[in-house]
Amino acid sequence: MADTWFETVAFAQERARKRLPKPAYSSLLSACEKGVTVNDNVDAFGELGFAPHVIGATEKRDMSTTVLGQEISLPVVISPTGVQAIHPDGEVAVARAAAARGTAMGLSSFASKPIEEVIAANGKLFFQVYWLGGREAIAQRVERAREAGAAALILTTDWSFSHGRDWGSPAIPEAMNLRTAVRMMPSALAKPGWFWQWAKTLRPPGLTVPNQVPRGEPAPPFFAVYGEWMSTPPPTWDDVAWLRELWGGPFMLKGVMRVDDAKRAVDAGVSAISVSNHGGNNLDCTPASIRALPPIVQAVGDDVEVLFDGGIRRGGDVVKAVALGARAVMIGRAYLWGLAANGQAGVENVLDILHGGIDSAMRGLGKASIHDLAPEDILVPAGFTRALGLPADPSA
Questions:
Q1: Between the CA of residue 109 and those of 126, 238, 242, 332, what are the distances in Å?
Q2: CA 42 vs CA 29, 48, 158, 205, 338: distances in Å
Q3: Which value, in Å, is the radius of gyration of the alpha carbons in the chain?
Q4: Which of 329, 318, 334 is nearest to 378 (CA)?
Q5: What is the full DSSP assignment across 282-307?
Q6: Considering the entire predicted model, what is its pTM?
Q7: How many Cβ atoms from other residues are within 10 Å of residue 171's Cβ?
Q8: In this structure, are strands 76-78 and 329-331 parallel, antiparallel, or unpaired?
Q9: Do the bridges between strand 65-67 and strand 70-72 make them parallel or antiparallel, or are there none, so unpaired?
Q10: What are the distances in angstroms from CA 35 to CA 166, 286, 381?
């Protein structure tokens, strides 16, 4: 137990660092350019304080809520991340872990496992798409998700072409063939536990994305699809409205950091938005997501569900985001570190860590329900928030 269990997300990260080959671990740190935004995402939570009660704690605390029509046991949802080939079971292991802990999962259209396999492990699944290949191709992917039984659709827009890193990007192969396997063998053999885990499957880590094509067709390589995405004209607000209408069910727009964009999303008819800067992977020097959350909640919180992602490492971070108006948070790196460290059990471990931290914070704040949290429970220093996209004339 001592060799596999970890007490904090930071320990999960360290376990992942020790277990993974250097290129694989580096990919999980992914942040563009200097990493100003990814660091601010994490550090900003340390600027927020709690206003605890000394008396009034309740015996039991209810963390359950509803996101995009799905009841979940705690306000933490798995954020979609692409190609989870850090573990042989990848997205299926994550789906099982989320189901075991009673929460929902976002599945990337860049995932390494077919949606049908993942949804068999967790029916509370939100399928994520990028604006890639035009309306006809997108409609095909959406229809596959509908047939598979996806509960909601996520359109991710907080990802740009800025993918350089000042500390260097890991060398990710375009295809995992024999030549590539031989070239990468030294880094894999340096991590014998990880190497043996994959060796037992008799196949190398996959770099294909099966959910980009109709079911049954050969899965294209990740970089081929990535190149197509880079050459596809970005979506307009009319495209967002079209996709929302095409789907017809619960629909989230992910990547909102500005009040004016949040209002446009409401006009486009979305069910939810996620206040997100893609974990610092979009445009460096964008403020931390938590700094942008309160003004967006104030502007549209009565019109749509407002979710949050970026920098969650503790249960207390979840409580701070919910108190400032988020319906729930979405986590990315935290569960990927758990997956790398110990597969499905590692992801469950991370969710348990967050659950315990949420419970402790709620007890200290004297809250019986996650829905009782309010901005008054949080100490927000002057100048903390960043109200982006407000009209020059506040009365406008």
A1: 10, 22, 19, 15
A2: 13, 11, 18, 30, 18
A3: 20
A4: 318
A5: SSTTPPPHHHHHHHHHHHHTTTSEEE
A6: 0.93
A7: 12
A8: parallel
A9: antiparallel
A10: 8, 10, 24
Q: Are strands 125-129 and 105-108 parallel, antiparallel or unpaired?
A: parallel
Kindly report the three-state secondary structure assignment for every residue of the chain.
CCCCCCCCHHHHHHHHHHHCCHHHHHHHCCCCECCHHHHHHHHHHHHCEECCCCCCCCCCCECCEEECCEEECCCEEECCCCCCCCCCCHHHHHHHHHHHCCCCEEEECCCCCCHHHHHHHCCCEEEEECCCCHHHHHHHHHHHHHHHCCCEEEEECCCCCCCCECCCCCCCCCCCCHHHHHHHHHHHHCCHHHHHHHHCCCCCCCCECHHHCCCCCCCCEHHHHHHHHHHCCCCCHHHHHHHHHHHCCCEEEEEECCHHHHHHHHHCCCCEEEECCHHHCCCCCCCCHHHHHHHHHHHHCCCCEEEEECCCCCHHHHHHHHHCCCCCEEECHHHHHHHHHHHHHHHHHHHHHHHHHHHHHHHHHCCCEHHHCCHHHEECCCCCCCCCCCCCCCCC
Q: pLDDT 10s digit of each residue in the chain, 396 long?
A: 446 889 999 999 999 999 998 888 888 887 788 889 999 999 999 999 999 998 988 899 999 999 999 999 999 999 999 889 899 999 999 999 999 999 999 999 999 999 999 999 999 999 999 999 989 999 999 999 999 999 999 999 887 755 566 766 666 666 666 566 666 667 767 878 887 887 888 777 778 999 999 999 999 988 888 888 888 999 999 999 999 999 999 999 999 999 999 999 999 999 999 999 999 888 999 999 999 999 999 999 999 999 999 999 999 999 999 999 999 999 999 999 999 999 999 999 999 999 999 999 999 999 999 999 999 999 999 999 999 999 775 555
So which residues are the catalytic ones?
278
Q: Which two tokens stand for residue 51?
A: 């206003």
Q: Which residue has the tokens 């570190």?
A: 337
Residue holding tokens 């890639």? 132
The C-alpha atoms of residue 168 and residue 102 are separated, in whole angstroms, by 38
